[in-house]
Amino acid sequence: MSLELNLAWIEAVMLAAVRMTAFIVIAPPFSYRAFPARIKAMLAIGLALAVSPKVTADYVSPSGAEFLGSLVFELLTGAVLGFLVFIVFSAVQSAGGLIDLFGGFQIAQAFDPGTQINGAQFSRFFHMAAIALLFSSGAYQLIIGGLTRSFTALPLGGAIDLGSSAETIVSLVSQLFLAAIQIAGPLLVILFLADVGLGLLTRVAPALNAFALGFPLKIFLTLTLSVVVFAALPSVVANLTGDALEAVMGVR
Questions:
Q1: Distance (Å, rounded) from C-alpha 81 to C-alpha 148?
Q2: Has residue 245 been placed in a domain?
Q3: Helices 37-50 and 139-153: angle between axes, nearest 10 degrees
Q4: Which residue range(s) make up the domain with 162?
Q5: InterPro entries under this entry (predicted)?
C-alpha cells in the first residue's frame, strides 16, 4: 500500500493558512488576546481547508525560491487586510477615548494586556462592547466571508499593490477620526457647553469657584448621557462592518 501526497495541494493550503493567520492575528475581533494562540491557529487552518477547493483549482507549484517569495507575499497580504479591518473598528475605541478626555476620565487610564489598549474606562468599555457586538450579531462571519473572497481578487502568490493599499489606509485613517467624532459628538457637545456654562458662571460670580464643581458635574453628565451613545453602538458596528468589507474587497 502506497500513500501519495499531493504536494501542490499542500502548498496551496499552506499559503492560504499563512494569509489567514496573519489576518486573524491583527484583525478584530479575532485578535483579542484572551483567545488562545492555538485556537487562532486552528481557526486559520480550518479556514484554509474550507477555501482549499478555490485556491487549489488553478494553483501551479513553484520552485523553492518562488515558494518562499509566495509565503512572504501571503503574509504581507494577510497583514494588510487585517490592518485595514483594525483601522475601521478603531473608530469605536477612539470615540471612547474622546469621551474619556472630555469627561475627565483620562487621568485614570491604564494598560489592558488583554486588548492591548492603553486607555481609560470608556476606551476599554467601548472596545469590549464592539467585540461582543461583532460576535453576537454575526458580523464576524461577514468579515471572514470578505477574507475568503479576497482569494478571488488576490490569488495565491500574487503581489499586493502597496500603493493602492497605502492610499486605502490613508483614506480609512481620515474616516476613523470622522467616525469617532460622529459617534461621541452629541456627548462632546454637551460637555463642551457645560465647560462654557461653568466659565460664564465663574465670570459672573468668581467667589463661587464654579470650576470646583466641574469635575463631578462632567462625570455625572458623562455617566448619564453615555447611555445614548452606547445604545447607538449596534448600528455603528453594523456600518463599520460594511466599511471593513469594502476595504478588504477593494484591495488589489
A1: 11
A2: yes
A3: 50
A4: 7-249
A5: T3SS_IM_R
